[in-house]
Structures are given as structure tokens and as C-alpha cells.
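anyone else get weird line breaks when pasting these?? whatever heres mine. first is seq + C-alpha cells for prot A
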Amino acid sequence: MAVKAVRRQLPLLPLRGILVFPYMVVHLDVGREKSIAAMEEAMVQDKQILLATQKDPRIDDPNPEDIYPVGTIAEIKQLLKIPGGTIRVLVEGISRARTLTYLDNDKFYLVDAEEYTEEAVASPEIEALTRSVIFQFEQYVKLSKKIPAETVVSIVSVEDPGRLADIIGAHLNLKQEDKQRLLEAVDLVERLETLYSILSRELEILELERKIGARVRKQMEKTQKEYYLREQLKAIQKELGERGEEENEAQEFKERIAAASLPAEVQEKAEREAERLGKMPPMAAEAVVVRTYLEWLLALPWEVLTEDRLDLDRAEQVLNEDHYGLKKVKERILEYLAVRKLAEKMKGPILCLVGPPGVGKTSLAKSIARAMERRFVRVSLGGVRDEAEIRGHRRTYVGALPGRIIQGMRQAGSKNPVFLLDEIDKMSMDFRGDPSAALLEVLDPEQNNSFSDHYIELPFDLSRVLFVTTANSTHTIPRALLDRMEVIHLPGYTEEEKVHIGRKFLLPKQIREHGLEPGQLVLSDNTLKAVIREYTREAGVRNLERSLATLCRKAARQVVQGRQKEVRITSRNLNTYLGPARYRFGLAERSDEVGVATGLAWTEVGGDVLSIEVSVMRGKGNLTLTGQLGDVMRESAQAGYTYVRSRARAVGIPDDFHEKEDVHIHVPEGAIPKDGPSAGITMATALASALSGRPVRREVAMTGEITLRGRVLPVGGIKEKILAAHRAGVKTVILPEENRKDLEEIPRHVRRRLRFVFVKDMDQVLAEALLPAARSEAGREKPKTVSKAAVNK
């Protein structure tokens, strides 16, 4: 197709948001002064005007660079003035034109333009492009359904390819840039190719829209079908006077959630889960999980607080009623209450009560709760090996539940209970994780205000909880966990304390539990002391309580059989009720023995005495150690042996004894493992006694570590060891000089009954423990096995 260009001067009308193609008839509303002046000029001339589109329709007074250079020359068919100064015109596009220059004119835009006219020239390429465009247009109309079929027939019947392209471009819903690109394609082949590419792109978009629409429609149909069936089911249930089970349950949960005082985050989560439950079939497995989860959320005390009793005098009275002694723990609780009275938002402390069995650690936690009027919950951690026991399992697991901490909070029913973690030193770990590591967050006052359980998946505030943990020993508690707790040591009870506890607490309790009247069993203090001395040897009072229970059973039998109305038990007839005495009370040794020394040992169940025997025989200087001793204790024996060799002449021993005599050191009860450095000076004393033939004073007990030079080093567990010495009837206790400060913890009445000797080296120990050579018996005698050995770990 040939294109001719003719230059003309024409008034220009800028269009906003519209583009006019040749052969297109359209109404325009003209309101700008320059545009109206251009229209009037065109009416005066030949009624022809150049229509060009603005690049930005928001500009009211466009400059030449704001107007596209290619436009359409149109003929004004009709002009009508309407109210408001606006002119409505009917124009018809004639041909394309390109603006060459803008001429000077203040009233309107006058341009020098180049008009393009087309002459049809047939060619196979144009024919092929025309057919392709027509096919694409027909497909477009089928997919879009926005153009009537009659219009399509009339458009497709146009024979002029250029006119056909312009009419199709006018009917397409395109962006202004695409229409302008089509208008600027003066060459017919270029115009048809541009139109074809635009149609291809539009067809792809329409195909995607169709697929999306089909997918959405299918989903909507499914949703509508479910909604319709659900509404039908509701209508049927309404007619039958019933309500859907899941709807009932979900509605009930929603009402409970609204009535409960939950934090905003928890309430939002609970409402979402209740909404999910309402949409599930009642027998679905997931519905059971959601139902259990909601029950847990609603059962937890998110905002429930009990009021603390801050009356210190009353709290002290309650603590003294329940427990005798335990001064340190009681002082710590009263200090906490005093601070709580002054500072309302104080975080709960983490107390760790460490002591031997039976001293009242667990019952003390109950007393704390009673004194503060808080609720009490106890969780035993003995044997716990799974981290999930503390943090819970995730809801994805079958049978999942929260951990023991959250379970305990539900059981307590308040945010500030006294929470007892019993036997925290008995936890262990395996492939399922380390539960003590999970406790790090629970027992950290800086972190536990947002404790996260795997099952609940919401932060729970544990900062108001008063955590109390108990342990027999701190050695097995991980260091990081121990660092978070305030350790309070509970030593064993003295004999006087046991008598008081037995008289005031244990005996009335057992009489009551065995159904006896207060006057039916009479037990004097001397009898009670005999039970403590001869039938129990412990740091706590559990065996004492068992012995008293035995007496109550014997008395109950006699009362029921009618033999006696009042059973009176004395120290003389005690063995008829409890059998022969199990332990000998008095001195650890009955007489001054050669080669037998009494040491003091610390065990997890309290302090005890430890007899060490040494026997000397002819041989080649071998040293034998028996009694299942640990490495540290064996090394102490070697150190003591070396010291005795180095001081042989001073002690009165031949210098060559190590060449002619074998030495055997034995600690009785060899089935019990023993270890630790505390028996160092005891073994050295027994060695010196056996080799020199000088007896060891029977009323002396000792503890301390020995060095090769004979220095005596401090040891631990002094309080427990001195109480054991007191129970065994020892009169003199030899202690390292550096342990002098530990005497402050010893009860005053115990200190009054014992004589303490503080030493710095072994020479002082031997001078105190061994009898003078003049009083010793002639020769060396083999030591006798006496007393009870204890574990020294």
C-alpha cells in the first residue's frame, strides 16, 4: 500500500484520555478556551481539525512536548453548545497526520502538519496478515464477550486492510500507549503486525483470566454446595428441635472464652481454634486435638492470683508450728515476705533445700505455702530423663500433653503458687534430651515471665511462682542450673531436736493415725531418747517415726485385746516392743586400741563415724588397702604412709620398718564404696599407732586431709560430721585449723558437750590422739574390728 504525504496548516485540539482513529465517529466535550477557539476556527475554514492525544491527561494547559506528534485529522459533523460554556461536537476521523511545527498563535494551537493518505495495493503478505488479524480478533471476541456478534460481522466484512486495522484497534480495550503505537504505524504492514502482536498478547491474558475464573468458580461452587448442604442440615435440625454437635460445642467454647479473663494473645488464639472446631466434623481426629487444646487453654490460671498473707508474725508462728529448728530457712522465707510487703512486683525466688533424707525438706515447702496462704503443688523429678516431661510435646504427636510445669500450674489454679520440684538431683539424661537444660528457663527469674511450652505454644508467666527445689546433694545438679538457685543447706538434727520433734510432732501424729486416745500410750522422754540412740542412726527422723509407729501398733493390739487400757513404755521394757537394740550408743570405741582410729565421714544421708584399722606383720614392706576405697582415699593412705616413714624416729618407730614389715589398712564394711580426702589424718594416726604400739584415745574422732609434709588441710561437711560425733558419744574432735570458722553453724548445746582441737600439722594430731608410750601396753597387738563404717564420698 502506497502512502502519500501532504502538508497542511490546521488548528489542533488536544484530547484527554481518548484517542480517535481514522473512520471513527465519536462525541467530544470541549471546555478549554484554546480548544473552543480551535473548534471555532475549524468551523470557519473547512470544518477539519487535527485531534492529538495528551501524554498526561491531568495537564490543563499542555505544551507541545506534552502532546503526541501523531494524531488524526477529523471532520466536524455537528456542534452543539450546552449550558456551562461547554461545546459537544460530533467528529469523524479522516486520515493520519504528523505535527511538524507549532505556529505562533495565542488563541489556539495552530500547527503545520503532514497528512498521510493511503492507496490500496494488494500483496500476499498483506492478505496473510489481514487473515491472521481477523482470526485473532474473532478469538478475542469469543473470549472477552464484550463485543456483540453483529459488530464482529460488520467489521470483518470490511475489505480495506488499513481501515479494518483501524476499526479493530478502535474496538479493542487497550492502554493509551498501545493505541498510540497503532496510530503511529503509518505503513500498513507495520500496522497489521503491531495489531497482531497486541491481539496475541490480549488473547494470552484473556486465556489466563478464563482459567483463573474457572478455578475460582469451581471453588465457589464447592463452597456454595457445602454452605447449601450445611444450611439444609441446620434447617432439618431446627425442624427436629436439635442443634449440630460441633456447632453446640464451638458455641459453648466461644461463650467460655468470652467469660474467661484471658490475655489478648491467648483469647485471640482460643477464638481461632474454636472457629476451626465449629467447621470440623465432630468425630474427626483433628477435632479431638483442638477440643483438648481449648480445654487446656481455658483451665490454665492466666490471670488468677491468690493474695499473700504478709503478716510476718503469723507466718513465723505457722513455720514454728510445723517445724522445729531450721532457723536459716525460716529467716529466708520471712525476709521474702517482708520484701513482698514493701515491693508488690517482686519476682519469686528460687530456693534449693539441700540436706540428707528425712530432715523435712518436702514438708517445709508445704509449710511455706501454708504460711503465705498460697496454693501448693509438688512435682517429683526423680528419674525424669525426657526433656518433653518439662516442656511438653507438640500437638502434632498423638496423645500430646503439656509438660509437668504447665500441668502443675493447672493443678494449682493460680499464677503464684508454691511450686515444689522434688529430688532435682535425681534427674538424668538420655537420647531424648536433657530435662535439666529445659529447667534453665523455668528457674531463671529473668526468663520465666514468658515460659513457652511446646504444647501450649503461648508464653506463660511463671515470675510470680515461688519455686522450691529439694536435693540430697548438689554434686549431681548441673552447674548452670545450680547457679540459678539460692542454696540453703539443711543439716541433720541433733538428739535434743529429735526428742522435741518426736514429742511435739511425730508421736501425736502416730497416736492419732493409729486410732489411739492421747492417754492410751505413755512414753517418757528417756524412752524417746533410748529409741533415738539405740534403734535409729540417721540425720533425719524417718526411722524414728517408723519406730514410734511400731510402738503405736503394739499398743493398739494390747488395747483391743483388752490386756491394758493404758500402755506405758519405759526404757527397761522397750526391747520387748522393738526387739534388741540395733546400735550401741556411747564412745565409738569401748577401749583405747592400738591401730584403730575413729574418723568422721560425710555421706548423702548425713554424717557418720568411720573406724580405720591398721595391722602390721612381718614382710617386705608392702602396703595393702582394702574396704573398697576410691582413688582419692587410696592416695590419702599413701600420703599418710609416706609421712609416717619420714617421721619414724620422732614417733618412736624403727627407721627400717618399711623393709621388714607389711602394713594392711582396712576400713570395715568393705561392700560399701568409700572415697574422699577427709580420712587422711585418721589413716596416718592409725598407722602411727600400729607401728609404734601406742593406743589411740577412744574418745577422740578426727577429720582432715594430709599432705606429704604432714600439713592438715581443711575439709567440707563439718556440721554433719560433728553431729555424727555427738551421736556416737565422742568427747574430743580434732579439726583442721582452717575449719574453725565452721563452728558457727554448730548448735550451741552440741558445742558445749564437745571439746574441739584445731591443728595445723600431723605432729599436733599425734600428740592429741595417741597415748604416751609409758601408758601403752607392751608390744603391738592386732586391732579389733569394732564400730560401724560409713560411706565417705
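and prot B, same format (seq, then C-alpha cells)
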Amino acid sequence: MKYSLFFLPVLLLVSTLLAAQIVPQGSYAIKGSLVDNAQKPIPYGAVALYLSADSSLITGTTSGEMGQFELLAKPGQYYLKISILSFKEKLVPNLRVTDQPVQLGVITLRPDTELLDEVTVRGERSMMELELDKRVFNVGADLSNIGGSAAEILDNVPSVSVDVEGNVSLRGSQNVRILIDGRPSGLTGISSPDALRQLQGNLIERIEVITNPSSRYDAEGEVGIINIILKKNRNQGVNGSFTINVGTPANYGGSFDINYRKNKINLFSSYGVNYRSRPGFGNSFQSFTGSDSTFSYSETNRRTRGGISHNFRVGLDYYLTEKNVLTGSVLYRRSDGRNTSRYVYRDFGPMGELVETTERNELEKEPENNIEAALSFRREYDRAGRSLTADVKWIVSDEDEFSSFQQGVLGGPINLRQRSSNTEDERNFLFQADYVHPFGEKSKWEAGVKSTSRVLNNDFLVEQQEEGGSWQALPRFDNYLIYRENIHAAYMMVGNQFKKMSLQAGLRGEFSDITTELPEEDLVNQRTYFNLFPSVHLSYELAKDKALQLSYSYRLSRPGFRELLPFSGFSNARSLMVGNPNLNPEYTHSLEAGHLLNWSTGSLLSSVYYRYRLGVIQRITLVDSVGFNRIFPVNLATQNAYGLEFNYSNTIQNWWRVNANFNFYRAITSGRYQDQLLESDTYTWTSRVTSKMTFYRKWDFQAGINYRAPQQIPQGRELSTYAIDLGLSRDVMKGNGTFTLSVRDLLNTRKRRTIIEQVGYFSTSSFQWNARQILLTFNYRLNRKKENRGREGMDGDNEGEN
């Protein structure tokens, strides 16, 4: 309901223009006018006519300058819905059209300054909407997103960044929870960030960023939650969209989403297939100075990562009654990864002389299957805002990595052959229920329960070929891990408005039962703990176009599956990324204040935030006597983090719109490992500026730049990175089709550069995934309006994660 304020006016305007050209035979006028409490006319109000039998949208219009409106309809039983920002939604029930015009007269709308539900920044699609506990980014009009993957779209969302390995960060931290349609999903991957690269962006409707979640959401995620909403439509009849893209480096794919609605049945489906081959380039130099030896080596590597992936989703909404909906859906994802890597090591002696050059090659196959089945029920009551929802979800994911390695002196014979297998299987069951109950004029309470059961099995093995040709397991790299996670939660929240002030407070309780087991070593580590997580959100309306927000939450971050794995890869035998099965959760106190300023052509959201973290997980680099690195996570430190963020949007001219985001971040980290003091005081900032222009009413051009400043880390520092993206699009086929040409990373500068400095050890490294990418995309819409001209599919299916 709340989203209708944004997409209904555009939809109704289109309906009005069509109705002005073609007057249906046997139709009769429905006339009226809108006024406020002072009897002043209300212009541009969204007036929608629905059929009483199945609540289907028949037609609509917007009120004129003097508040007047007129609709045409055939004889039948209808109801009218009137929506306009700053006024309570108005329903006119039992509207019967016979064989003569219907005069509704003057309709008075009551002002609604309530901020319990949302404060909204209005604008065309891809603008930000600010709600009490989240920000919503509609990604459709960002030309650099079209044809891209979910990871590439996230990298364009303000406050969010995706590094060259695909790891997602929010406000400088990777401890962020990623959901699909408000729920955990195998589409985000078991332990590898590659899953988001394989999810096609054309299937995404919008992205919600929740920087300080309320108690209705999981307590998981230090800096908050990113919720990816997939497309689904409920318009009558058949409608959909079809997309095909080609690009270089190799990027070929196609997708569709189709919807069919008739009476009580709504069928929806989507499918995407994509083939990619992404090149990667990297180099590093490492120097070791000990009491009895000095040596160094350089490393260069070239990698390709790609393969073919499929995403298929089908579902059904069945309207038991006008207010009761049962939804079932099945999602299947299949990917067949084909990855290669080539490392060249050059070893130098004490005087810098070249001692030896070694080459190591890897060929990896990475098949993955993911199946999800979901069933949900939603009931809305006669009183507006009262609802009951229940969800059940079952996830089965299987991910395998099979690699073969060959190593020898560069240009010489192969003297080492190895192979590895890494099998990761997941079974996940979820149940949750939520109930929302309004009371009084501007108050509500809500409560919910949630239970999840998750089991992951990981079998990792590295074998080496002996002289006789037989294969022998390497004991240090032979491990089997079982991870069991049972989390049970319940929450309750109460909200009320006191004149210009809105208050929402909640308390969430979570019981965690987590077991990490290494059967081959007969080691079992079980942790059970119960925590209470309070949250408070306060909003104060300074004036019609200004609002203040203040929020607090207490959260935790459980270690990810990849962080717990004893071993997770063997590509670079000299630098191993390993896990730690004994990691404990992090705990975070988060405080945030925001100020929203609206004006006729734009908005500015200013935020300040503070986070105090305990048991911070940091990756430590240890170097052995021959110069091989082992990088692993530990609960190292405490951290005080401060931030200042601005989100700016402005229409400079009717053909030129600018969006900008700036986030300044300071983190003071202090801890000890093996009697060594490890601390850092990081000052850094990120920024993104996008300029979109429309020429000759047919061409859209967009230019954007992303920048991340240098930052300190406990054992060194990360250097700055930036990238420029361009996009150009044009509508064809009477507006039903759109061609888009985009260039990501125009100057080929999106690289990760790191410097590590310790006593006796120095390292510099640089790595880049995804060199400059050029992509041509064509999108065709069937009985559906263009996405960046209005809001489609925003029907409130997802109430957030319990």
C-alpha cells in the first residue's frame, strides 16, 4: 500500500492519456473533486478504480489543478482508492455504476503527518526512498546496472561497495547480512561471493539498505542488512520483459520475467542464463629479513573465472479472498564454473640476485546447484494496517570445487602434480510468522517468531602424486567439517506518534545453538547463548520538508562459513587463506542520527553514526621461515567507528539529474595477538557521483565515478581505488524496447592494492578482477511500462526479515 504513492500517479497518468484518445463504448463518467480540511483543492492526487470482485485495477487518473477528477467505467460494482503524499489514503467503497454518470461530489482528505511508516524522497525510479528503518534504492534507471550482475548493481548503491573478489561491504565493513526477498537464500552463495556475480541484475526490482535494523529483523549483521528484491508483478493479463546482452570481456546472456493474472490466480516466472569469462591480473612483492637470512620473491598471476549459470523461478499467488493470499514458489539455480590461474614466482637471494623462477598452473571445475521452495500466507484485516503473515522455506545447496595443479621451473619439466577437492553442502529450513496490529489513531504493535535450522558439510582434501604415479593425501590439508546452526527468535515492537514525533521501540530475543565439528580430529565445539537485542527509532518532523531521525540497535555478527573452514583453497600454495573453527561472534552497539531535507527539485539526507564493536574479527598474516604466508581470522580487538554520510539528489533541469553520495569513516581498532600489539586508526572516505541527462527526449546519457580513499588496517594499509562508468540508452519500437550501451571501469582502474608491514616482513600487492567491460543490452517490454518512468511490482510482498 505504501508504495502506491510512488507508482500509481505514473500508471494513472498513462491510463488517463489513453482514455483521452479512446473512449470505451458503453462507459459512464465517475466525477468528483478533492479538498483538504480547509476546503482547499488538492491537485495531482492519484485516483484509482478497482473492481470489487477481485480488486483488479480498472483505470485511474490524477486530480486537476482545482482538485477535480473524472473516470470512465462500464456498469459494475467498484471501489475507489485515493492516494496522495501527506494525506491519509481514502477508500470510497460500494461504488455502483449503472447506466448514468456517477457524481461523487466533494471528497475531503485528512492530513497525515505520521512518520511511523515512512518519510519519502519522491522522484523517478532509481531515486532513494527513506523509511523509518531502511532506505530503498530502485535500480532500474541506472544505466550502468543494465545487463550487469547483482554484484555489479550492489557496487553502484550508495554506502555499498564490492571489492575485486566480490566481497560486499556496507559503510566500510564486510559484516553485512545479505537477503533475497527478505529471507536468507542460497542465491547469495554458501561461502563464495561468486553467487552474486551469477545472479543477473535484470531480475532485480530494488535493493533495500537497512543500516540500523529494528527488532523485526535478524540481529545478524554488524553494519546492517542488504535486502535484494526480485521482480514480480500482479497486473491483470499477461505482461513481462525480455532482455538480451552481449559484451566484452565475454559476457553473453538473456533473461525474462513473465506474469499472468486472472481473477484469483497470479502466475509469475523468471529465467536468466549467462555465460562469462572474466580475466584477472595481479602481482606482488614480498621481502623477508631475519636474524640469519634475507630473501624475497615476486609473484605475477593471471586468472580467468567464468562459466555458464542458470536462474529459474516460478510461483503462484492464489487469492483465497480479497484479503487472504497464499503464495508458493520454487527457485532453481545451476552454475558450471570453469576457472584457471597461472602463477609465476621469482625467488631472489640476499643480494637481490634471481635464484629461481617457478610456474604454477591450476584448472578448476566448480559445479553448483541450489533449490529453494517457499510457501507463504498473508491475511489483511478490515482495519487498515492490520496483517498476519506466515512463511516456510526449504533450501538445498550443493557446491563443489575440483582443481588440478601443475608446478615446475619456468620453461622446464613439471616436477609437482597436485589435486584438490572441496565439497560444500547446505540444508536450511526456515519458519516465521509476523502479526501487526494498529490501535488508537496513530499507534501500532507488532510481534513475530522465527526458527531456522541449518546444516553445512565441508570436505576438503589435497593430494599429491608420488613418483610411482599414486596419489597421497597431504595430512595438513585433509579435513572434514560439519557446521550445525539452530537459531530461535521472537520479537515485539510498539510504535506511536505524538504530534510531530514518532517513536518505535522493540526488543528481540535470540537463542543460538551452534556446533562446529571436526570428526577426523574428534573435536566438537558447541556454543549455546541467549541474547536480547533492543532497538529504538525516533523521528521528528521539523517542517513539511524537513525531518530528523535517531536510532539505536544492539547487534551481533556470527562468523561466516568460509571463516570457519580449516582450509578453503590451494591455488596459491605460498599464500593460504584459511579459517578458524573457534571464532566467536562479534557484538555491536550502533547509534545513528539523520536529517532529511526536501525541496521542490531534490533532497539531501545527512547522517552521522557511531559503532562500538567487541570481539572484532580481523585477518592476521603470519609468515614462516621459508616465506610462505598463512592468512586467518581471529577475534582480535575492540573498535570504535565513527561516520558521516550524505545522500544528495537534485533535478537541475528537467533533462538533467544529479545524484551523489559521500561517506566519511573513522575506525580505531586495538588488540593483541601472540603478545604483539595490533592497532590502527583509519580515516577514509568513499564517494559516488552520477549525472544523468536526456537529449532530444530519446537519448539518456549517464556518467558516474566511484572513489574509495586509502585506509589503515592493523598490519598495513589499503591504497585508494576509483572507477568511471558510462551509459547511453535509447527507446525504440514505440517505447516498448530499449537499447543500452554501457562501459564499466572506463580507465581500467578498479584494483585492490595492499601494503603489509611487520617486523622482518614487507609486502605489496595489486589485483584486478573484471577489466574494462563494454556491454550492449536490449530490453523488450510486453504490456508493461518502462521501468524508469514509474514503480512496478511494488506491492508490498516483502515485509522484511523477521
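btw re prot B: Residues 1-24, 113-126, 787-802 have pLDDT under 50 and may be disordered. The domain at 237-789 is CATH 2.40.170.20 (Maltoporin; Chain A).
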